Amino acid sequence: MSRSSPQPPSTPVLGPAHDDPGLQPERTALAWGRTVLALITAAAVCLRWISHHGPFVLTLFAVAVITGTAMYLTQRARYARSSAGITAERVAPEVLGILGLAAATVVLSFLGIYVVVLA
């Protein structure tokens, strides 16, 4: 009788999440990350305006922080969707994320103009 040596449990070899030599999902994730950083920086700058423009500036701060936090928390899902789309060769655009960011940018712009010009 031949005895076979016990085999260690096989662990699946993790390959790349997609087959894109240009690393499109990674570039997109970095772009969203830079946008989050820009929003948080803008929020910090807004805090410096409180002494000059009053507590209404906290509205600007809140919109920037909420938008940046929402983008940060949904980043993993966006990356997974993009990687799966490249693997399936069909990537759907991130319409809600882009519309949300555009709306937040417009709101921040109008609030900023209001604070600087009218307040």
Listing every helix as H and every strand as E from the N terminus to the C terminus, the arrangement reads HHHHH
Overall form: elongated
Low-confidence stretches: none
Distance between the termini: 91 Å
Residues in helices, as a percent range? 55-70%
Q: How many DSSP helices?
A: 5
Number of strands: 0
Q: Tell me the major beta sheet.
A: none
How is this structure best described in words?
The longest helix is centred in the first third of the chain and has 25 residues, at 24-48. Helix content is 70%, strand content 0%. It has 119 residues and is mainly alpha-helical. The chain has five helices and no strands. Helix 1 (24-48) runs antiparallel to helix 3 (57-73) and helix 3 (57-73) packs antiparallel against helix 5 (95-118).
